[in-house]
Write a structure and sequence with these properties.
Blueprint (H helix, E strand, L loop, with lengths): L13 H21 L16 H23 L4 E6 L4 E4 L1 H7 L3 H4 L10 H17 L3 E7 L2 E10 L8 E8 L1 H23 L3 E6 L4 E4 L1 H7 L3 H4 L4 H4 L17 E8 L5 E13 L2 E10 L1 H50 L5 H31 L8 E4 H18 L3 E6 L6 E4 L1 H17 L5 E8 L8 H6 L13 E10 L6 H4 L11 H7 L5 H11 L3 E6 L5 E10 L3 H11 L8 E5 L3 H12 L4 E5 L2 H7 L7 E5 L7 H9 L4 H4 L3 E5 L7 H6 L4 E4 L4 H12 L5 H9 L9 H7 L4 H27 L3 H18 L2 H13 L5 H27 L1
Parallel strand pairs: 12-14, 18-19, 18-20, 20-21, 21-22
Antiparallel strand pairs: 1-2, 1-5, 3-4, 4-5, 6-7, 6-10, 8-9, 9-10, 11-13, 14-15, 15-17, 16-17
């Protein structure tokens, strides 16, 4: 019993072995009792039986003993057959191996010779009780960290023999060790389970809770026994959209769920779950995190965000209101300046007017910067996407500064690398704005020396600054399939005053300039570079600068834009050309008297008939006896604003009046959202200060594709025998304003010959669309100055241009040129008078 052994897979079980031994003993006893009752021959003692009977008897005994021996020897348990005096009559191989002796050597020995002394008394006591009570006994013995399950079973015996007992000992140390290990593992699991910072719970596929850790129990306020009475669905707070909390057998399941606590409060959990096997059945192991605090923080952040957005809205409203107050008088200043510039002025008056125009332009630039900044911060800013020529844009940008650099005697140049695509798609106006800001600063801060612009194709990020290189996109040749974009690098270098390193870190901040003293000396609000950086980033790029005091500065930026084609650029330019229109009827609704007069004068310059109203109610009254082709509607007016007036116009019973195009006028820095003015029925929007070019573009865009009532009246009433020049018509068109009449005549003298030259070139090139366009445009000019014959000839050319033979068109063009030559003489005489 001192050797620990592993059980053989083929060895019979202990209970089975003991039952088999007892069965064999019963069979032997039955044989012995049956022998005397047999025939006389069979009843004789063995030494007197015949050979066959004795042999049969002995054979059965031998077979029984062999069976018993095989059974007990096949077991790894320790077996011994002892009598009531503890004498061993037989033992199995396991016992003999344990004491290192042959089983025969143990027969006749006392059982207690092989029982360790420290447990000998316990075994003796159990054996005596079994003998006395003639009942089986089971007990355990522990020695040297080994534990044995011991049993004593009494066997049946004849009257003339000693009682026999089986003594067996089964080593249960591995089992106890395994149980101990399992207990330790369960304790470890329970410790980890309950010590986890997150809530952990396990439920079966029906939702019944199987286990829950301490955190989960404390969060809910229930004991484990109480939790096991619920299903997960029982604890879920009522919701219209319950989450999927069972999932499938393979995927990790994540969901948020709100459980009801014992005190009635809601416990929000962010849960991750996975299928497991628990107690031999499928279950879900769920790990939940209490997100009560997170939701509280999110709520605080959301309120802070709302407050910040509210502050931004208030700021934008403030900028809008200030802009409105600034733009209203500025609109008048610019309008008066433009009108005065068209009149005859002496040199001193021209210089003073130029100073006014320059100051107004600077003020308008500052307002526009504030407008851009406000739009960028409010996320209402959008970039255009149209084809353009980069070379043409660079030429235009360069031409803007030619007079300035000439006055400062600076060397000014730009270079565009040959591998840079000429045609791109993007927002040319905003790119020009960026270049204008950066180049303008370079010229402003450079007293002598040079300013140079360089444009290259950024084939790799080494051409960019280190900060830019980290964020720069790959070039087209390294880009993903389908990406036709290119990365263009711009560099603007000057030899100006330069900047200190501390200034480089903040020049892209709002309202910041390099050196404060320089800012006062050179002027500016410090918004240009901040706006430029935001615009560049909207073009998928970034900007950086390097500088040294007294040695100039270098600004580098890159943008990424898609390629375009020459055809797309040509179509864009053709679509963007100004279209002259025939005189139209215009209703101007504007509450500011000066603005009303100035805008009226601008509109009347092109021969349009203008009626005015100071608010929406006056506009509705004017429509009772005036049918306009277009209405310019100020948005902010007393009594009845532009929105309400538009709604009432759209509700008029007269379908012609109800469908009149309406252009919104606004002096706000923030352009009203398009859906806001479109929802009320307006067709377009213009921001103040209103310029003559924008007025013309708006009228052309609305009326160029449809014949106006006035235009139709003129076409129907005009006859081929009209006067060559009727100055009364011109005076009517100009509102009998002699200054405007003179201006209209001067414009005709300066542009009429150009119209004819362009018309003859279009005929020579067989370009029907161009012939039609020029004829349509000149028809408007001729009608404005009262040249009815020329207008009729231009109308004929316009109508016949799509289909007439080129010979016939050439005759009409020649006839029109003769009329124009005669008109120029007559108009010149009218101007002299």
């Amino acid at each position: 019993m001192t050797e620990q052994r592993q059980s053989s897979a083929q060895a019979p079980g202990r209970n089975e072995l003991e039952e088999r031994i007892a069965e064999l003993e019963r069979e032997n006893a039955a044989l012995r009792q049956a022998l005397p009752a047999a025939s006389p021959v069979d009843a004789l003692p063995p030494d007197q039986c015949d050979d066959d009977s004795r042999n049969q008897f002995e054979q059965e005994i031998i077979e029984s003993r062999n069976v018993v021996r095989a059974l007990i020897d096949a077991s790894d348990d320790y077996f011994a057959l002892v009598d009531e005096h503890s004498i061993i009559h037989a033992c199995n191989l396991a016992w003999s191996r344990a004491v290192d002796a042959h089983p025969r050597q143990l027969v006749g020995r006392n059982l207690f010779d092989f029982i360790p002394e420290q447990v000998r008394d316990a075994v003796h006591t159990e054996l005596e009780e079994s003998i006395r009570e003639n009942k089986p006994k089971a007990f355990t013995l522990t020695r040297d960290n080994l534990t044995f399950d011991c049993r004593i079973n009494p066997l049946g015996s004849s009257d003339n023999s000693s009682r026999m007992f089986t003594f067996s000992a089964h080593d249960i140390s591995p089992l106890l060790q395994a149980e101990k290990l399992q207990q330790e593992m369960e304790l470890r699991y329970k410790t980890v389970f309950d010590s986890a910072g997150d809530a952990i719970f396990i439920h079966d596929l029906q939702g019944f809770f199987l286990d829950a850790n301490l955190v989960f129990r404390e969060l809910l306020g229930y004991s484990l026994d109480q939790i096991r009475q619920f299903t997960l669905q029982d604890l879920v707070a009522r919701t219209d959209n319950p989450p999927d909390m069972l999932g499938d057998a393979t995927d990790m399941l994540t969901f948020q769920v709100e459980l009801m606590r014992e005190d009635g409060h809601v416990l929000p959990l962010d849960v991750s779950a996975r299928r497991i096997t628990f107690d031999n059945k499928p279950a879900l192991l769920c790990i939940g995190r209490d997100i009560t605090q997170r939701r509280r923080v999110e709520s605080i952040l959301l309120k802070a965000k709302d407050a910040a957005e509210s502050n931004v809205r208030m700021q934008n409203e403030f900028v809008a209101n200030i802009s409105h107050e600034l733009r209203t008088p500025l609109s008048s200043i610019i309008g008066i300046t433009e009108l005065l510039s068209l009149s005859e002025l002496d040199d001193a008056q021209r210089r003073n007017l130029d100073r006014i125009a320059y100051s107004a332009d600077m003020l308008r630039g500052l307002i526009n910067d504030l407008l851009d900044l406000s739009r960028l911060e409010s996320s209402t800013f959008s970039m255009a996407s149209q084809p353009f020529s980069l070379l043409e844009l660079m030429r235009e940008t360069s031409n803007i500064f030619l007079e300035k650099v000439a006055s400062k005697n600076l060397n000014f140049s730009y270079t565009v690398s040959e591998d840079v695509p000429e045609f791109l798609r993007g927002d040319p106006m905003r790119l020009k704005q960026v270049l204008f800001n950066i180049v303008g600063n370079a010229i402003k801060f450079t007293a002598d020396g040079s300013v140079r612009m360089t444009v290259t194709l950024a084939r790799d990020v080494r051409q960019l600054s280190p900060d830019q290189a980290d964020a720069a996109p790959k070039d087209a040749e390294h880009a993903a399939p389908g990406d036709d974009g290119v990365t263009i690098a711009f560099e603007i270098a000057d030899t100006g005053i330069g900047m200190a390193p501390v200034d480089l870190q903040r020049i892209f901040n709002r309202f910041t300039q390099g050196d404060n003293t320089a800012g006062r000396a050179y002027g500016g609000a410090g918004l240009g570079l901040s706006i430029s950086r935001q615009l560049i980033r909207l073009m998928n790029g970034d900007i950086s600068a390097s500088s040294e005091p007294g040695h100039g500065s270098t600004f580098r930026f890159y943008i990424r834009l898609p390629r375009a084609t020459a055809l797309a650029v040509a179509e864009q330019l053709a679509a963007g050309e100004a279209v002259d229109v025939s005189p139209a009827r215009v209703l101007l609704v504007e509450d500011n008297r000066i603005n009303r007069e100035m805008i009226t004068a601008m509109i009347e310059l092109d021969g349009h008939e203008v009626r005015t109203a100071a608010d929406g109610l006056e506009a509705l009254k004017a429509l009772e006896n005036f049918t306009p082709d277009v209405i310019f509607m100020d948005l902010q007016m007393p009594r009845c604003d532009g929105y309400e007036a538009t709604r009432r116009i759209r509700a008029l019973e007269n379908p012609r009046l109800a469908a009149t195009p309406i252009v919104a006028l606004s002096a706000h820095a923030q352009k009203p959202p398009e859906e806001e003015w479109r929802k009320t029925g307006m067709d377009a929007h213009l921001s103040k200060p209103i310029q003559l070019a924008t007025i013309r573009e708006a009228i052309a865009a609305i009326t160029s594709d449809r014949e106006t009532p006035r235009q139709k009246e003129q076409d129907e009433s005009a006859t081929s025998d009209g006067a060559v020049l009727d100055l009364e018509i011109l005076r009517d068109n100009m509102g009998h304003n002699e200054d405007l009449v003179r201006l209209a005549c001067e414009k005709f003298l300066s542009h009429a010959a150009g119209y004819m030259d362009d018309l003859q070139v279009a005929v020579k090139n067989n370009d029907r669309n161009e012939v039609k366009r020029i004829a349509h445009s000149f028809k408007s000019v001729a009608g404005t100055i009262g040249a009815e014959q020329a207008r009729q000839e231009a109308l004929t050319i316009e109508k016949e241009a799509p289909t007439a033979a080129w010979g016939l068109l050439s005759q009409h063009v020649s006839s029109l040129r003769e009329m124009v030559d005669e008109l120029r003489v007559l108009v010149a005489e009218a101007v002299r008078r």
